[in-house]
């Protein structure tokens, strides 16, 4: 059975879910070297949560919007080069509720929105049109709070449910299965950011799914067939977003303490940037930029990464 919460409570959960683990994280955090890189902020957002780089080179950002206002969520796109001052922010789609995780499959943008997943067209005459790709009834056992999403090379979607502690897998036909259930073999407590480790640079097994736990900062690797899951690294705070650069380094955002970690394939880690509330980040491998929704600052922060 799934217990629904009032809409305003569910919106507040996006922040409070991370804040409830602050005391535990502060007590467990390990000192990590800080290497501060050049950053610049792009304003013009309202509670931005996730960003995906489109095939057109634009940055598509999910905006949760205000507290308790239905259908005020949106997708906005950033065009241009923020480091040279040439940037525009435009609306792509409106009328969403609490959009969070975003991922592209081809030119189609898929967006998690509370208990469903939207498909949004980004090219041609249908650009900006949206429809529900996965409804609440698509998910076995219902949903708690869907959060982040990743795609593999075959177009399968992997969706974290933070409240239920599970991972769903959906194909392009809209068929959904439990990829990792809430049984005793599941080390996740509050799964948040997800990404497919296509090359196996961190997991050691190509095609594994990596998941960061919001509650305890553990990084979990799930076998490509969902048969096993194990903690492979720890102490990343209130883990939120995950993204790889071209060299196989993994970037991890800590929503509560405002840190961005870089975890190298050697498992050496460092803090490369600090900001108020980094959410579901992504790496633009073409430009070597880290793009971070700054959740509580209503801005998107761009970080210039060093050459690989």
The CATH architecture comes to: 6 Propeller
Proportion of residues in helical segments: under 10%
- Rg over alpha carbons: 18 Å
Distance between the termini: 48 Å
Spell out the helices and strands N to C. Answer: HHEEEEEEEEEEEEEEEEEEEEEEEE
The CATH topology turns out to be Neuraminidase
Please write out the topology:
Layout lengths: L6 H13 L2 H7 L10 E5 L4 E6 L5 E5 L9 E9 L4 E11 L2 E7 L2 E6 L2 E6 L8 E5 L11 E6 L5 E5 L4 E5 L5 E5 L10 E7 L10 E6 L5 E4 L6 E5 L5 E6 L5 E5 L4 E5 L5 E6 L7 E3 L4 E6 L4 E6 L4
Antiparallel strand pairs: 1-24, 2-3, 3-4, 4-5, 6-7, 7-8, 8-9, 10-11, 11-12, 12-13, 14-15, 15-16, 16-17, 18-19, 19-20, 20-21, 22-23, 23-24
Account of the protein in words:
This protein has helices at 7-19, 22-28, and strands at 39-43, 48-53, 59-63, 73-81, 86-96, 99-105, 108-113, 116-121, 130-134, 146-151, 157-161, 166-170, 176-180, 191-197, 208-213, 219-222, 229-233, 239-244, 250-254, 259-263, 269-274, 282-284, 289-294, 299-304. It is globular. The strands form six sheets. A four-stranded antiparallel sheet has the order 1-24-23-22, with no helix packed on it. A four-stranded antiparallel sheet has the order 2-3-4-5, with no helix packed on it. The chain has a single domain (7-304), classed as Neuraminidase (6 Propeller). The N and C termini lie far apart (48 Å). Mean pLDDT is 90; it is low at 1-12 and 18-31. 6% of the residues lie in helices and 45% in strands. With 308 residues, the protein is mainly β. The protein contains two helices and 24 strands.
